[in-house]
Design brief:
Length: 284
């Protein structure tokens, strides 16, 4: 472990990319679901041999709060400790997977990439690796990952989103939630239904077909349909800053300047009674 992959690691990699490099990377299982039906138990029941498990709620997020939302970024020291526990060094490339098309694993990959750390989502998930699953925990030697502050240029604060919403600065908020949540028809977990006024809706699941990224032409067309291909400043939002990271990685994959992520997302915005909300299709 600890051998640096020579070429730059892209945001998404295939199993054919990973297979010859498996000894040089740390594979991380990031399975999780909002309703709790998917998570560590699935990892223990069977995972890619050698993979370690990163828990979204405890490893990739700090304590939930009204101001920070359900999955705020963890304290840099806490994140470093989590990465060390997973056997990750400063020079260890990371490949993360889930069974949801990469939309959960993207949170870890985005967090690492904004810190300048080589990391990628395994496009298509673990199904094509062709190896028998391994049960139980994987013991790894502690890594030496150093804490680093979250870069302000990669993260949008509530007031940044409010300024875009109000039209006082030029930008676009792209909401990655399902359309029914964006329109406010259902809201299973957050304080109020609806979306940030002026936001557009591009569900993150639209970027994936059969567990894989759609082709670049289709991805670019989707971005163009909501104006994200030409906006001066793109901020991705979702329920709690998890699947929004996938949208940011897709844009990086396509060669756009790295957009920002509103980590508090709807869970933070809707919890503030002073923040206006919009119901219906809005600007989408």
């Amino acid at each position: 472990m600890g051998v640096v992959v020579a070429e730059q690691v892209p945001p998404f990699v295939s199993t054919s990319w990973l297979t010859p490099r498996r000894e040089d990377v740390r594979i991380v299982d990031c399975r999780w679901s909002l309703d709790g039906s998917v998570g560590r138990g699935d990892y223990l029941a069977g995972h890619v041999p050698g993979a370690v498990y990163a828990d979204l709620d405890t490893d990739l997020a700090g304590p939930a709060s009204t101001a920070g939302g359900r999955h705020p970024l963890p304290d840099p020291d806490d994140f470093a400790l989590a990465m060390q526990r997973l056997g990750i060094h400063d020079d260890t490339p990371v490949v993360a997977y889930d069974t949801a098309g990469g939309i959960i694993a993207a949170r870890l990959v985005w967090m690492l990439r904004i810190l300048g750390h080589p990391a990628a989502v395994l496009d298509g998930g673990p199904g094509d690796l062709g190896s028998a699953l391994e049960e139980g925990e994987v013991d790894v030697a502690e890594g030496s990952f150093r804490p680093r502050p979250w870069p302000r240029t990669a993260v949008a604060a509530m007031d940044d989103v409010a300024a875009i919403s109000a039209g006082t600065v030029d930008g676009l908020v792209v909401d990655a939630r399902p359309a029914v949540r964006f329109r406010g028809e259902v809201e299973p977990v957050d304080a109020r239904p609806g979306h940030v006024p002026g936001a557009v809706n591009l569900p993150v699941t639209d970027a994936v077909r059969d567990g894989r990224l759609r082709d670049d032409v289709a991805l670019r067309s989707d971005l163009a349909s909501v104006g994200a291909d030409r906006a001066a400043d793109v901020v991705w939002s979702c329920g709690s800053g998890v699947t929004a990271a996938h949208g940011a990685l897709v844009m990086e994959h396509l060669g756009f300047d790295r957009p920002r992520v509103f980590v508090g997302s709807w869970s933070a915005w809707s919890a503030d009674p002073d923040r206006p909300t919009e119901i219906g299709s809005g600007s989408a």
